[in-house]
Amino acid sequence: MNVKSYLMPTYGERSLEFSYGKGAYLFTKKNERYLDFGGGIAVNSLGHCHPKLIKALQKQSKKLWHTSNLYFNKNQEAYAKLLCKHSFAEKVFFTNSGVESIECGLKVIRRYHYYHKNIKKKNIITFEGAFHGRTFAALSAQRNKKYSEGFGPMLSGFVQVPFNDLYVLKKSINENTAAIMIETVQGEGGIRPISLSVLKEIKKLCVKNNILLFLDEVQCGFGRSGKLFSYQWANIKPDIMAVAKGIGSGFPMGACLATNDSSIGMTKGVHGSTYGGNPLAIAVGTAVIKEIMSKGFLDKVDKVARYLWLQLKQLENDIDEIIAIRGAGLLLGIKTKTDNIRISNMLTLNGLLTVPASDNVIRLAPPLIIAKSEVNQAIEIIRKVLKNIK
Length: 390
Ligand SMILES: *Cc1c(COP(=O)(O)O)cnc(C)c1O
Description:
Elements: E1 20-22, E2 25-27, E3 33-36, H1 39-42, H2 51-61, H3 74-85, E4 91-95, H4 98-115, E5 123-127, H5 136-142, H6 145-148, E6 158-161, H7 166-172, E7 177-183, E8 185-186, E9 192-193, H8 196-209, E10 212-216, E11 240-243, E12 254-258, H9 279-292, H10 297-318, E13 322-328, E14 331-336, H11 340-349, E15 352-353, E16 355-357, E17 361-364, H12 372-387
Parallel strand pairs: 3-15, 5-6, 5-7, 7-10, 10-11
Antiparallel strand pairs: 1-2, 2-3, 4-12, 8-9, 11-12, 13-14, 14-17, 16-17
Helix pairs in contact: 2-9, 3-9, 10-12
């Protein structure tokens, strides 16, 4: 490892380096192969170097890279229309990352109540175990010391309640409540899905109390659940939703989606981004969603996800080390007795990449294009490692 690095050491020491990727695999310079069930933290939705994405990016890169949002771009308009067609949304704001999509959503909320002169409605209810990113607003929303220690003062206007607890949530709603912001499946917090019935109740509470429902699907969206968006399993519609990660399959981009109603305060000049909706991102994003929405694609994701779930449940049965299997679709967690980081490192040594999450969970977020045979390989590695753990 480099003793002298020019990088701020926020990511700690890293020695494993990849030189290329293909499909569900990453390779080192020496051609050592790793099965990628981390997916760059649930990002590489179509795997590595998908031919259609390479083509889209190459084609655009020869035409135009950047003009800024001072100019009209018909591909940007067409892509926004596509995102709306496949979701609840009627309006889109393009960003470059998850936390920027969160920031935009929070602004949509505040401007909505400002527009309607709901003077008191400033507070946003969030949930224990939440992760919404690393800006001051996101840190203030999640109230997790692990991320915010030493960065105070935090912003006010956030109220936190336990996850999946309707009773406390109901008691916390009052005349100051502007919105409820929630991950449909908590990612960093330990791969915890919100119960579909609780989500339906939250929606009802929002409607009843003139509160906006803001979903964070940065990690669980874009096909990972087996539907394009996780909320679609509950048959409800949010008012606002943040997306990123899987949206670009590795190209840095994100979006904040909203209804016409909720985004009524987002008028000319109130928000902006230099790069958001840049031509390269639009080209890749368009290719990603077209692939995910192509006939049979999501059915296949659902099928392979259910297969992976069954294999993991079998492992849970067979191996004492496993406390629980949880998650949804291809965003799954294995809660273990032994330290999750230690196990994740052992899996890596055996050729399987995973990402630890909170609550001692090993996170699996393989590309959506994963094959059954690759699931079998992963399961064998997990079985071997967990059986021999001491
Ligand atoms: C990763 C993540 C974010 C932040 O995304 P960045 O692109 O890192 O800014 C926000 N919310 C959730 C649920 C995430 O998983």
